[in-house]
Amino acid sequence: MRILTVDIGTGTQDIFLYDSRLDIENGFKLILPSPTMIIHRQIKEATKNQTPILLTGHQMGGGPAAWAAEAHARAGLPIYATPDAATTLNDELDKVKALGIKIVSEDESKKLKVKSLELKDFDFELISKTFNDFGISLSALDAIAVAVFDHGAAPAGVSDRQFRFDYLDRRIREKNSLSAFAYLSTEIPPIMSRLISVADSAHGFDCPLVIMDTAPAAVLGTTFDPVVAKCERKLIANVGNFHTLAFRLASNGIEGLFEHHTGEIDLPKLESLLRALADGSLKHEDVFNDMGHGALIYGNRPLELGKDDFDVVVTGPRRSMFTLTPNPSPNGRGVGMRGLIPYFATPFGDMMIAGCFGLLAATADVMPDLAETVYGSLRGGRGVAPWDVD
To answer: Residue 312: CB partners within 8 Å, gap ≥ 6?
Structure first.
């Protein structure tokens, strides 16, 4: 069984090819620039050369790509976008036009003599070519799983932050599991526009496609760290480039969470939020009124910190917000340390692809026929050496 997993963030896209015949640690992996970073660099080059550009394709992750597009327009250089591509900058096209970007129809776009850049989060053809250049074919896959962050398509006048958090709340109440945020491509809720965009733009393969939110994927993957797996209840914080999302987890599911913008917090604020999440005192408005998304508490049983060797499990590309001291031992608690004691999880020896491991587990939940084999691998089932695989 082979499953391609692709976790698409702001800085990188992290790729893991699962092969059930191999130990998880021996699976092939790639850490590459994210699609939004690739487009960002292409737009910056066009701006430097004073080249008019056209954005085509689909809605994708904004951030760096959107900033570069806005800078191109501010420089007084022509920039056009088809309607779907323009939603990368804002779901409300009037706001895109106000930036100096001209919206053109698909037919109009074909008549423009400008540099064209295609927007899409998931480029299977490029990933397949990269693997193929190393002698690895992706022609026979049992599934593909992709993770992206999606605010959802909020109606005009409705806060993107509140809209996304209402969605998170509904999903957890419907299915109290981290894999609640994963869907077969044919079952994505209509409001999740970026997930749908990934499904619409994905082609070149004939296997099922699973699409998931990035932060729950990273947190789910982190639970396969052997130290984390032994904890019945725990705090796990995914400190991402744009968003920090923390869960309070128990064996029966999600007890609470909060989501904030990483750029709006420092370590003392993050530790304060985590303590309040642990004891159940955190309120939605505490986070939302601070320019975050919000908070939810479902269980009324506080999580006591200080009982284990660590207080919070930490993952994500900005995890260095916590002082990178060695994982503490029982005899080291409190010695020369201040604040919460972090444990820097490394599931299967690699923090960078924790989201891929989460995608793999969620795919097994969404596609039960794969569950026995996938979970056998994730729970430490032994495989053969790579050179013994045809």
So the answer is: 234, 235, 236, 237, 246, 274, 340, 341, 342, 343
The pLDDT mean for the chain works out to: 92
Let me know if residue 304 belongs to a domain: yes
* Residue 330 pLDDT: 46
pLDDT at 62 over 90: no
pTM here is 0.92
Nearest to 340 by CA among 264, 242, 236, 250: 236
- Looking only at the bridges linking them, the beta strands covering 53-57 and 209-213 are unpaired
- Asked whether the beta carbons of 35 and 48 are under 8 A apart, the reply is no
Residue 328 and residue 238 share a domain:
yes
**Residues whose CB falls within 8 Å of the CB of residue 107, separated by 6 or more in sequence, listed in order:** none
Which single residue is written with the structure tokens 């924790």?
354
- Tokens representing 255 are 């007890």
Could you read off the pLDDT of 349-390 as tens digits, one per residue? 999 999 999 999 999 999 999 999 999 999 876 665 566 666
Last residue of a domain, one of 119, 142, 172: 119
Separation CA 16–CA 357 (nearest Å): 8
CA–CA distance, 347 with 276 (Å, rounded to integer) = 27
CA-derived radius of gyration, the chain: 21
Tell me whether residue 171 is in a domain: yes
Most confident of 2-6, 21-25, 161-165, 326-330: 2-6
Residues 304 and 243 in one domain: yes
The residues pairing with 257 across neighbouring beta strands, listed in sequence order, are 247, 296
Q: Are strands 182-184 and 209-213 parallel, antiparallel or unpaired?
A: antiparallel
Within a domain: 350: no
User: For the purposes of burial, counting CB atoms within 10 Å of the CB of 212, is it exposed (0-12), middle (13-18) or buried (19 or more)?
Assistant: buried
Domain carrying residue 74 = 35-119
d(CA 259, CA 359): 20
Per-residue confidence at 187, pLDDT binned at 50, 70, 90? very high
DSSP 166-207: HHHHHHHHH--SGGGGEEEGGG--TT-HHHHHHHHH--S--S
| CA-closest candidate to residue 30, choices 140, 155, 128 | 128
